[in-house]
Automatic annotation (TrEMBL):
GO terms for cellular component: ATP-binding cassette (ABC) transporter complex. GO terms for molecular function: ABC-type transporter activity; ATP binding; ATP hydrolysis activity. InterPro entries: AAA+_ATPase, ABC1_TM_dom, ABC1_TM_sf, ABC_transporter-like_ATP-bd, ECF_ABC_transporter_ATP-bd, P-loop_NTPase. It comes from Desulfonema magnum. It is found in: Cell membrane. It comes from the Bacteria. The keyword Transport applies. Residues 333-540 form the ABC transporter domain. This is ABC transporter, ATP-binding protein. The keyword ATP-binding applies. SUPFAM superfamilies: ABC transporter transmembrane region (SSF90123), P-loop containing nucleoside triphosphate hydrolases (SSF52540). It is a multi-pass membrane protein. SMART domains: AAA. Keywords: ATP-binding, Membrane, Nucleotide-binding, Transmembrane, Transmembrane helix, Transport.
Amino acid sequence: MFKLLFFPENKLSFTPVFVLMMTFMAAIGCSSMAIIVNEAAGEILEGRVHLTHLPPFLAALVFFVITKRIALRTGIDFVEQTLEKYLNKVGNQLRQAELMQIENLDKGEIYVKMTMDTKKISRTAAAGINVIQSVFTILFVVAYIFVTSPLSGFIFLGLFMISLLYYQSYRHSLHEAIHGAVSKETELFDDFGHVLDGFKELKISHEKNEDFFHNYLRPLSDTVKRLRIRVGDKYARVNVFSFVFMFYLSLGCVVFLLPSYVPVSVRFKVIAASAFLWDPINILSVSMPEILQAYVSGERLDQLEQQLQVSSDLGEFAASTRPEDPLYDFNEIRIENLRFDYTDKEGNTTFFIGPLNLTLKAGEILFLKGGNGSGKSTLLKMLTGLYPPRSGAFVMDGTEINMAEHRHLFSVVYTDCHLFDGLYGIESPSDEKVNELLNMMGIFHKVRWQEGQFRYSELSTGQRKRLSFITALLEDKPIYVFDEWAAEQDPEFRKSFYEKLLPELKARGKTIIAATHDEHYFHVADQVIKMEYGQVRSDA
Ligand SMILES: Nc1ncnc2c1ncn2[C@@H]1O[C@H](COP(=O)(O)OP(=O)(O)OP(=O)(O)O)[C@@H](O)[C@H]1O
């Protein structure tokens, strides 16, 4: 994230340097005002009151206001633009990621990173500029104190250096504490997701509800509270010692310990100048926790970006893109000795499919049967180019192909199909055509087609699948894949699916692969294969 801010495309970006320059100027303006006021106050003390200091004071004020305004405006714009670039980049990475990567990611964590972490960085833009200005102002005022009284300058500088070293020695543990608290916060956020997603289950079972709330959610929220308090406590310790204590200690040293040969007028100037340090020190102390949180958020966003980078394990499979001139016609696809493995974090195989040999002819209907967990859905994901095979080959009309490049051949209705509100990537069909399909699928009364969007309130699972079927028909691809599509349909519609809709698709030259348990309708298929423990059995 910070690389994206300061070194996009591996080159130092001009805008943050410009913001830094403007902040530096604003600090010059601010400290000039302090010095002018100090000098004028000294003269007042000596009984000389005249207005010679007023024009430079006003000039410094105008200079400060203009440069600070430019720094803030440009800085905030820049941070927001960088965040937008970042969100687009991650959005792009997400859509181009492979299914296996997405399955390995924690969705709650992605939401938190894309929303809360980016928000923390966005909120810190102005605070960051104020902190930088404060640091410069402190340096200028200390330099002025140096010029006025080198001994006082040494005292301030020495004690500030000690406070910086103290802060630095604590930074690592503070950073760790913030990381710990934020990870637990993300877990808590995930668990609130369980309350909403599993609301029905929790509502219906008092025991489950109580157990989940008292023995899981509350202890977790208690842990988050404790971790947040720990962060606050650590920060308070650093803050009070390194900023506040050191400031007052420096002031006390100057007031009480300066040797008597230092003239009173000089002492007065030093004390008055040090009063101008209080505001920047206060800004540092208030803003540093926010900046540290934003820093941690930046690291978390970097981590997400890395997780989404295409893993080299996926090799050519992931590198493949849609061909410029995609093929839509084929006679047969042969699957030769194909194997796919699910692995755990240590790389051990937890389930595998194959080696598998199968021939799929264009225009035929293939049914895939098998018990729960036998590997039907996994095989379909591999066939449709969503999972990379570990070994083996797909051969289309005699030529070996990378299936990921041929995903465009398929229209799929998965068991957990997602309904988009519009028909993305499809040339807008006529209203008559869509209404005819809604009618044919018996959901015309539930779903309205308006201005290129499907509008509906709540659909049952069977109705959702019917709407997905319509989308698949409109996509008009050569191969249709249905993963237990008929499982949620009523007997009448199930019959219509097997005995009317599928034969109609076949008559239009479409190839159909369907995972199904409906043995009554196996006569519709040209080929039925049975999956068992990831293997194809011949007794289908
Ligand atoms: N993302 C995954 N990571 C690891 N293992 C998985 C994953 N998805 C499925 N499996 C495992 O792979 C095996 C096959 O699952 P799959 O979903 O392909 O079976 P299925 O035949 O479609 O079952 P069902 O009829 O219940 O839908 C199961 O043992 C399952 O636990």
